[in-house]
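Chain and conformation:
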Amino acid sequence: MARVVQRRGGPPYLLVSFVILFLLATAAAVLLWVQIDNAGNRNRQLEDNFRRAASVQELSNPTPSIREMLNIYDKDPKRPTVLSQQAARIEDLSAIITGTRSGYNVAKTQAEQLAQDIGSTLGRGLVAETKDLYSELSRVRSELELLRTQNTELEEKLNQKDQSVAELTNSFTTKIDQLEAEKKTLDDKVKQMHEGFVASQQQLQKELEDRRGELSMEIANKNQQLRELEMAVEAKDQTIERLRDELDKKRGTSGEDVIARKADGKILQVKDRENVCYINLGTGDRVTPGLTFTVYPTSGIPENGEGKAKIAVTAVHDTISECRIVERSGKEPIIPGDLVANVAYDPRRTLTFVVDGQFDLRNRGQASPEDIQEVKLLIQRSGGKVADQVDVQTDFVVLGTDPPKPPQPSESAAETVWAVYQAQLREYNRYQETLQAAKSMHVPVLNTNRFLALIGYSSKATEK
């Protein structure tokens, strides 16, 4: 520092001024130094804050979002900083995520919790998750709408069913009321009928008491009549027995000899060349054209019934009939005086026959239903009658061969087999019953050959 030399004699204005200037300069220097130091501190603090906000590399090569915010800073008159924009955006995203401007950590925590709840991760993105959830929500809404539609339809159907149930309930209630009314009416009728029944019972009881005495008298009378009828029946039984004895005497011990071997007429004239003969039976003797006879010698009718010839009536006159000689049995000629007979013919009455068994008239080796019908026709054409069963009015029984007793089929046999068995068994039993009845009543029994011989049957006459 320059040394000041005081000059004697004058005031030290210069020195004072110099001191004052020096002090001012010193103060100014100190103040400037303080300001510079404060500015350096502030600059260092700003640099630290700047480094915390962004690095030099981030500023030299900013991301698209930072570049976008820098452009907004340059263009917006309000000069919003990048940090303020970033903070505002974070708060906006937080509000979008959480619904409140709660900050990054709260939003992240809630987002992580949501991802955990829905089974996803944060890396997939909230928008993608939201889209998926929206798609799922849309699908659920569609299904819900479909369910609502179906529910509406079901409700309509349920309403219809409820209405039907209500109608049925009303109808059922009405029917119940009607039935109850009918029941009441029926109860009244039953009560009336019961009262009437009780009255009728009392009346009947009274009438019964009145009738009891009358019936006692009637029973006594009936018992008397019964005793008289028993006596009458006993007398009739004795008469029947007597008539049976007389019938046996007429029929003979052999049964058929007396009646079967009885001649009906005689040969009056024979024309051998014309094969014609005449007999002493005519219209008054119940002779009809077609009636057949067997010709026997004057010695009588043999036991087997075979004769000289078979003849058939062709013309009937008052007392005689013209006959055609149908068949000759041997060389013995037909002569006037020969006997003629037909076991089914009687000039005074109609003879009764019962026919049973199996017949083979033409020797075909097998019986047939047609042959038994032909036997019955022979009897009827000769003036006789065919009955179904043997009784005291039966004159002859004609039996063919007896039907064999059929073997019983197994339990598992078909219904048709059982039906055939039962039919054959009925035929067998009927034959045995007919035979036993004929024997017990001493009715003459003729076999097939004897019957055909005695009736004048000829297969040649049948053919013509």
Q: What stands out?
A: Residues 126-251 form the longest helix (126 residues).
